[in-house]
User: Fold this.
Amino acid sequence: MSKPPTRPNSAYPSRSGTPSLRDVVHGVMKIFHHEKESEAHQIFRQQVGHQPKPALGLPQTINPDEETVPGIEHPGSTGVIYCSDRAIANGFNYANSHEWANLGQGAPEVGPIPNAPPRPENIPLPVDSLEYAPTTGVKELREAVAHLYNDTYRKGKASQYTYENVCIVPGGRAGLSRVAAVIGDVYCSYQVPDYTAYDQVLSAFKRLVPVPTALDPKHKYRLDIEQTKKDILTQGLAVVIASNPRNPTGQVIAGKDLKELVSLSRENTTIILDEFYSWYIYPDNEKDIGKSISSAEYVEDVNSDSVVIIDGLTKNWRLPGWRVCWVIGPKNLITALSQSGSFLDGGANHPMQLAALPLLEPLRVKTEKVALQRHFKAKRDHVLKRLHALHLDVEVPPQATFYVWLNLEKLPPPLNNGLTFFEELLKEQTIVIPGIFFDINPAHRRNLFNSPCHHYVRLSFGPPMKDLDKGLDAIGRVVAAARLGGTKKMGHSYKKSLESSSEINV
Assistant:
């Protein structure tokens, strides 16, 4: 019996040559339209805390593979934590971190940079510093923070910050949590995309009723201040929270827009601004190098304008490990934060607060800003140039921060969504952050494929240049493989842990 003729290689499963209707349908089915069809998305949902939350406030189901602890529910992890866990499942560990390119890190490089003041190398430990510090922080450091803001943003203004307007906190999230803990039952406006921790804060502090605003890339993710004013009147918004400069888009609210946003604080609305990237501004004009941005410039009365500023040593001073940050606002807010801090975190590290004092000297800060802006602007330009060479142009280039908000929609599926792109880069020992983590969606109910952030990833140019190039080389390899028809090997076979490969059926 003769064998049937062999079929020539074809991209279509039913026959060679032009596609039949069956082939077209088969091809469409391979393009994921729902998270249940995607292995990367199922891995995400199976992480405890990432399942859609029940509608009636019932406790979230505990993963049966874990020990059930009555009354405890998982809040879900922020983007950096989830991505680090997934990287560890693919072989990453902190001992071999030099072998990986971490373009997901939300921290700047911490080593020396050209023309910057020397990095701290030792920490004094006077005996008094071994005691607890006050929950509002060491008075000398509070005074130094107030003086720096007055010197930088409030020269010539009648109303000046004092130490009573400053609360020292053990990190930005601690500051945000302290503030959230003292807010009453109110409607809170937030934007999408924005900083991932807002998702957990709006979930955990349930007296805050979240009201989202989607920012449009066509308008360069600009917050429409006039629309915000209308929303305050029609929706009864009592709190507006935002990062500025903006994480992850790299945009900034400045000038007239920032002045108008601050003015809303005089209309019975509290404005909470996360200003951790206030030095990471990249002006086109050389004479503007060294200028930073803060809502403090537009506050009229430091004790009656309800503007809350959160900042610290983490980003601008490039000292994320110190966990010394601050909240600035009216005096009566600071007394409330002292009370919430007494049961939330107990206060910032005493010796590190004392060690921070010389770092806030205004002349040193000016030198630091100039060096930082020149160095990070060069890194930004380098990354954008390399992405352009890969035909991955950034639709809204960053004007601030150290992040690139990269749209993947033009890539071949399934590489055109952030979670799958992230999983493929893990195979190349490179970490990025999928865009869905910046979709502040406290109930987690939205189909991830419907998220406005689904087709994006955040790339950080915080790391040193050699790490950036290593990561960009990996992105180039993955993109080149996809464009050459290698997508059949993508979107599946992901490791769930170091011990086993993925067993997810899609």
About this structure: The first strand starts at residue 101 and ends at 102. The mean pLDDT is 88.
